[in-house]
């Protein structure tokens, strides 16, 4: 019992540090543990860091929710059943612009994922395109983005009709 | 107990009010008529057409009035319209929208009725009697023509070609032979044009991984097409295609872009600077590919594509085994730089196959309703044609725009319908329960029939491309 307790403590510690190399060295520390089992064990919710995020609809109404660090904004909308009509029609495959969101400049600047040509191409079809527009499916939550507020513009615009 | 009663008697939600009433009164609850409580939300809606416009509208109607009932009618035995038969096979991610549509189909308040031709199998009058609102979402099923000599004999309709490679039953027998053909010319500057160019130029290994129809894959395997010329009436600043589709073609490893740099005279940074971002980026990409085509050696590419601007088709003739396409050279109208006028000068382009891809056009399906023959659109105000009759998507707006513009339009029109329903005095309407008794001469299909076909397609990894085969699967004979 005690041995396993210690091992679990060790594992918990390494999980907290989010350091896979250390997790695996802890596993191989002389104890026979099924690695696959360990990898597929769901991580308890309390271990995952959640950050606040607010979606602001075009009519000004706000939806405050929480998202896991590392999840993209489309995941957040899907996991929390955020009521945004038509959001994420192509399911995050960069084939539409329905998850278009507009960031504040300061938040836009600290987004880790860089804008690619392919994302820009889809954004070009979006209604209400701004310099701080992104596709929600391409932006992952980080600690730095905690409390972020994004605007969700209504509708889409076809570039060909302009 | 009550739920048991409902499930035992296999009660439909539409008759729930009446049955609840029956149940409650038979159990001594006479004071309350539940029918009154359920009444106001028991609207019956009819959607004609099961493409994106129809599904997004149905989805929104049910969101705003969850207890209403929506019957979705479709001419083919299977749903999804242009998502199934229009979206290019190498764009499977676009087809992810069908997951949302399937959720709509699984809603117990939704019925899918396939193999049903509105206007032919039923009159508008009968539909009006059976529904509180009728929503026309049948798209644009015709294509625009060039109206030039030789068109009928020698020009392939892009719409038919797309239907052919996507396994649309009506187009599966299109006589397409790409053997010994070298040069294809596509007339038109929209996304359908670029889809066709991409399908013609793609390495066969890429197409093999898609759900392209098996016979189209065979024909493309034998294809010897090595040059695709895309021909536009106006210049690089007036193209209708979008940047995603252009970039796919530009980035193609198997085919080289060729342009005439002089088409880009006057298009420079100074001009681009003032464009809105989408137009600026699209034009920059066109310009970049034109500049690169001047310098890249042709050595590593076996195929090429070429954007030819400022040309209007005048005539197609067959000379031996070649086609001669006569193009008139245009110039910009000095009074309006978005328009072109012919110069009277022509050139003859020798090629093997000519496609016309100059847009789609709506069709009239109900003689009782107004229809603009010129635009192919049913005249409407914000989607409303007259009391109780509405249109969404291409049927009401014309065939322009991607799925997402249609989605927004569908949401807007659904909202209008629900608002209008507030002032419509309630009456009992029987929807499909009545309609099905009026169509007795043919087998209509339902959602479970479609599931059988979809399962078959998944199992055999190919699209079912004849109506006959679809019914064999439905009837368990395949």
TrEMBL record, chain A:
Chain coiled-coil ranges: none
GO BP annotations, alphabetical order: P450-containing electron transport chain; positive regulation of ecdysteroid biosynthetic process; steroid biosynthetic process
Similarity comment: family membership: Belongs to the adrenodoxin/putidaredoxin family.
Major site of localization recorded for this protein: mitochondrion
CC terms in the record's Gene Ontology section: mitochondrion
GO molecular function: 2 iron, 2 sulfur cluster binding; electron transfer activity; metal ion binding
Compartment annotation: Mitochondrion
Listed Pfam families: Fer2
InterPro entries noted in UniProt: 2Fe-2S_ferredoxin-like_sf (IPR036010), 2Fe-2S_ferredoxin-type (IPR001041), Adrenodoxin-like (IPR001055), Adrenodoxin_Fe-S_BS (IPR018298), Beta-grasp_dom_sf (IPR012675)
Domain called 2Fe-2S ferredoxin-type: residue spans: 51-156
Organism: Folsomia candida (Springtail)
Keywords: 2Fe-2S, Electron transport, Iron, Iron-sulfur, Lipid metabolism, Metal-binding, Mitochondrion, Steroid metabolism, Steroidogenesis, Transport
Designated name of the protein: Adrenodoxin, mitochondrial
Cofactor: [2Fe-2S] cluster
Function statement: Required for ecdysteroidogenesis in the prothoracic gland which is necessary for larval to pupal transition.
Family matches, as Gene3D superfamilies: 3.10.20.30
TrEMBL record, chain B:
Positions bound to FAD: 53, 74, 82, 394, 401-403
E.C. no: 1.18.1.6
Pathway recorded for this protein: Steroid metabolism; cholesterol metabolism
GO cellular component annotations of the record: mitochondrion
Gene3D superfamilies in the cross-refs: FAD/NAD(P)-binding domain, NAD(P)-binding Rossmann-like Domain
InterPro entries cross-referenced by the UniProt entry: FAD/NAD-bd_sf (IPR036188), FAD/NAD-binding_dom (IPR023753), Ferredox_Rdtase (IPR055275), Ferredox_Rdtase_adrenod (IPR021163)
First-tier enzyme category under EC: oxidoreductase
Pfam family membership, one: Pyr_redox_2
Record field: catalytic activity: 2 reduced [adrenodoxin] + NADP(+) + H(+) = 2 oxidized [adrenodoxin] + NADPH
Keyword match Mitochondrion: yes
Assigned keywords, A-Z: FAD, Flavoprotein, Mitochondrion, NADP, Oxidoreductase
Keyword match Flavoprotein: yes
Compartments reported by the entry: Mitochondrion
Residue ranges occupied by any FAD/NAD(P)-binding domain in the UniProt entry: 44-200
GO molecular function, one term: oxidoreductase activity
Cofactor(s) this protein requires: FAD
Superkingdom of the source species: Eukaryota
GO aspect biological process, one term: cholesterol metabolic process
Binding site for NADP(+): 189-192, 233-234, 245, 401
Family the entry assigns: Belongs to the ferredoxin--NADP reductase type 1 family.
Name of this protein: NADPH:adrenodoxin oxidoreductase, mitochondrial
Species this chain originates from: Folsomia candida (Springtail)
């Amino acid at each position: 019992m005690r041995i396993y307790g210690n091992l679990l403590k060790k594992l918990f510690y390494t999980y907290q540090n989010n350091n896979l190399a250390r997790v695996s060295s802890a596993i191989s520390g002389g104890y026979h543990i099924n690695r696959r089992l360990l990898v597929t064990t769901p991580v308890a919710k309390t271990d995952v860091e959640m950050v606040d995020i607010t979606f602001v609809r075009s009519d000004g109404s706000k939806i405050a929710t929480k998202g896991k660090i590392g999840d993209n904004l489309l995941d957040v909308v899907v996991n929390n059943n955020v009521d945004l009509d038509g959001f994420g029609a192509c399911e995050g495959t960069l084939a539409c612009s329905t998850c278009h969101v507009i960031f504040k400049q300061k938040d836009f600047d600290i987004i880790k994922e860089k804008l690619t040509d392919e994302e820009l191409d889809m954004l070009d079809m979006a209604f209400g395109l701004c310099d701080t527009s992104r596709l929600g499916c391409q932006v992952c939550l980080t600690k730095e983005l905690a409390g972020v507020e994004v605007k969700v513009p209504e509708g889409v615009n076809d570039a060909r009709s302009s | 107990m009550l739920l048991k009663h409902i499930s035992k008697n296999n009660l439909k939600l539409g008759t729930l009010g009446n049955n609840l009433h029956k149940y409650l009164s038979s159990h001594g609850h006479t004071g309350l008529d539940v029918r009154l409580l359920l009444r106001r939300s028991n609207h019956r809606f009819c959607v004609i057409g099961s493409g994106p416009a129809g599904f997004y509208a149905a989805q929104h109607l049910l969101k705003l009035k969850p207890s209403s009932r929506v019957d979705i009618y479709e001419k083919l035995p299977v749903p999804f319209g242009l998502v199934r038969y229009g979206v290019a096979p190498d764009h499977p991610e676009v087809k992810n929208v069908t997951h949302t549509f399937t959720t709509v189909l699984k809603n117990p308040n939704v019925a899918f009725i396939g193999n049903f031709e509105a206007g032919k199998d039923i009159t508008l009058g009968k539909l009006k009697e059976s529904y509180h609102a009728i929503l026309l979402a049948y798209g644009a099923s015709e294509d625009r023509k060039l109206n030039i000599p030789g068109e009928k004999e020698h020009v392939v309709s892009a719409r038919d070609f797309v239907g052919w490679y996507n396994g649309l039953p009506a187009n599966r027998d299109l006589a397409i032979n790409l053997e010994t053909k070298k040069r294809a010319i596509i007339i038109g500057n929209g996304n359908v044009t670029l889809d066709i160019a991409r399908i013609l130029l793609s390495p066969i290994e890429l197409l093999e991984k898609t759900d392209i129809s098996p016979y189209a894959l065979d024909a493309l395997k034998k294809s010897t097409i090595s040059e695709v010329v895309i021909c536009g009436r106006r210049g690089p600043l007036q193209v209708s295609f979008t940047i995603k589709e252009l970039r796919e073609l530009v980035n193609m490893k198997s085919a080289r872009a060729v342009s005439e740099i002089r088409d880009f005279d006057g298009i420079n940074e100074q001009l681009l600077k003032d464009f809105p971002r989408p137009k600026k980026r699209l034009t920059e990409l066109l310009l970049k590919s034109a500049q690169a085509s001047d310098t890249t050696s042709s050595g590593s590419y076996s195929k090429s594509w070429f954007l030819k601007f400022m040309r209007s088709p005048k005539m197609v003739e067959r000379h031996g085994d070649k086609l001669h396409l006569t193009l008139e050279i245009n110039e910009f109208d000095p009074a309006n730089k978005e328009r072109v006028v012919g110069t009277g000068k022509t050139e003859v382009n020798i090629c093997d196959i000519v496609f016309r891809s100059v847009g789609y056009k709506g069709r009239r399906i109900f003689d009782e309703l107004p229809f603009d023959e010129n635009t192919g659109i049913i005249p409407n105000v914000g989607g409303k044609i007259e009391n109780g009759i509405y249109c969404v998507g291409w049927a009401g707006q014309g065939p322009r725009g991607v799925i997402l513009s249609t989605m927004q339009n569908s949401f807007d029109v659904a909202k209008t319908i629900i608002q209008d329903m507030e002032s419509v005095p309630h009456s009992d309407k029987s929807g499909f329960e009545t309609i099905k008794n009026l169509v007795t001469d043919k087998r209509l299909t339902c959602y479970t029939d479609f599931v059988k076909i979809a399962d078959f397609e998944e199992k055999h990894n190919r699209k079912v491309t004849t109506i006959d085969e679809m019914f064999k699967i439905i009837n368990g004979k395949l």
